[in-house]
Protein: DnaJ homolog subfamily C member 16
Amino acid sequence: MQLWRLFIIFCCLLTSFAENYDPYKILGVSKSATTLEIRRVYKKLAKEWHPDKTNDPEAQNKFVQIKQAYELLIDPERRVKFDQTGITEDTYKEKYEYSRFQNHPFEDIFNHAYFNFQENDITFFHRLSITARQYDKILIPKSTHTPHLIFFYTDWCFSCLQTAPYFRKLMDHLEPLGVELVTVHTAREPNLARRLNVHTLPCIVVLLDGNIYVYKETITSVQRIIEFLRNHLPYKLITTIKDNNIEEFLNGWEDNKVRGLIFEPQNNVRLRYLITAYHFRNRVAFGFVNSTAIRKDYQVPLDMDTVLLFNENTSRPVASISMKEIPTQTLHHIISSNQYLALPRLSSQSVLESLCPCEWNKPRKRLCVVLVTTASSDHDPHRQSFRRYAQTAPYNSERVRFAYIYHDKQSEFVNSLIPDGEDVEPLLNVVIIWRRDTSHVKYEWLSKKWETEENLNDTVHKLENTISRLLKSSEALSYEAFVKDLFDEHAKGIIGRIITKLLVFSERIYDGLNKEQILPVLSIVGTVIFIIAVGYFMAYLVRMEEESIRQQNAKAKNNNTGPANNYQPELRLHELRSEKYNGLVRLLKPGCRTIILVLDMQSRQQLIPPFHKAVWPYRKNKTLMFAYMYVERGLSWYKDLLQLSLAEDRELNINPRNCVGTVLAVNGYRKYFCMYHVKHPESKRRKSSSNKSIKASTVKDCEAAAFIGFNSDSSESDDEILLEGNLLDGLPNWLDRLFEGTTKRYHINYWPEFPNK
Structure:
């Protein structure tokens, strides 16, 4: 019984709602009204009841009712359903929110999503949906002057449905300010979602000047989204004006921009003026006044919003508007009507398109009267006189526009207007242009140059006659030419573009990072910075140490008597003589050895350099000493040394010339030596491993000593002829084997005496 009672009560309530809710009555149209009539009435009522345009306390509710009634009647299916049954989802919503049942005990029941269809209707997103082609062809070019908010959604996305009310509020708040909101169906446009770095749904992307910024927070706070848009508008879009910079700001019109002053009761610039400044940033430079004295000078009311526009005449504004709440449409209309200076400069192709549009399909000609000057102060008087004439010229501004151009910056455009075969000096001359299409122009030069005001009467008379004649439809201009687009004088240089790209890239990286990714990225960046800092610090210490050593060496050099006293070679070669014999051979410490080169006076120049080069890698070994011995001085010692190493006791007959190039490695403590000579069996190459083993087994001590001709008086004891420069070619390899311990050791019982000579 209880369920039936609830059902009956519910049906009665719905019937009551249906009887009271009438969208035709809300809009004031008949049931037979066409779609065009409904749309016309809706626009009129929306302007009348918009909360920004009326102070009526019921404006908010009335505006919502008008909008929902319009959305119902503009949809054919929903309109037919309402005409047949008188019940629609708007019925429940409107009566619940705005009827006397607002505090009804069944409020919680009707607040469920089952009855909140209109607020979360997915068709709302479908109506605003765009394609990737529309994004590339329409939105990106339009984003240079109009901000866009793009909402990404898909079907059967409950989170998207839940954010629909917030997106509606966002539209109601931002669309009147000049921001356009569109949607993208992610399932139908997956490539566009990937291009714009959309990873989750729902998602909002801000499009400004072709750059995208992804909003990563939840779409439940309209104010946060508005702040996100505000923070990504260009930096210093509006200059703060105080008493000390008002004159500099107003006199900066030489950048070819009109000056605009914004006055507000509060101290912060509202979003509506930021978006307006973004829309007209190429034509108007805006400043926000934060000074009471400037308000008094221009007699601006304290309780109203005021916008003043100035051209070259900074003493008084060329246009002004003051209202409690300036509508965006009205503000744009006033700025559009005064967005050019009294004498603008043709500084880009867009300025030329606005001042001198193409008129190939119009019977009435629009002429552009252009003074050719240079970017020099010498031509300021001529431009000033031409500006005064342009302000007082008796012509309709819709048919005749005055401007000037810099010949040194737009030389290609100006030179194309010089007729072939005619001597025309363009500087300080006036050319009259009529553009038929984008590249085809007709023109005529004034026969007299533009002078200053003292000599201007004849020139003005000539110019007025020429303009009056050319304005007639029957008259044609004398010349025609094909011209290229003007050079954009306000475009950023290559350095500015690189900096802008880097800033945009850094912002995209920052926006693309999740909260979980920020810490690892910061860790990597910190590690790289730490490594670079440590490397720089170490390099700094090395430079300081080198500088300290350099200063010490310079100081020591200055304190010594000569450079020879300060020379300490890294590798010292000692001469083996009787007074050094004990230190180099006989009394060597355990583990120490002396490498001795045997030479004579004739071979000194040829053998010392290769010996020095061969033993250079071992210079830091503290267990080695290096020496050389003249065979003439130590022949008897050398003969006794070889005699002691032989197993047989017989007399040796030594040829001193055959001993040259011998290297002895002497171990004084253990009483043995190793020998290198180019004719020594250890220095000869083995042809195979088998020959090496046979030859090693047959070598005896006496044979090892016979290699240098002990039994011969001739130096030619072998069939090979040896050159002194090649005697030490195999020494580096022998030294490697020496320190490996693979060379043959010749042991003796005692060290013979070295001769005293």
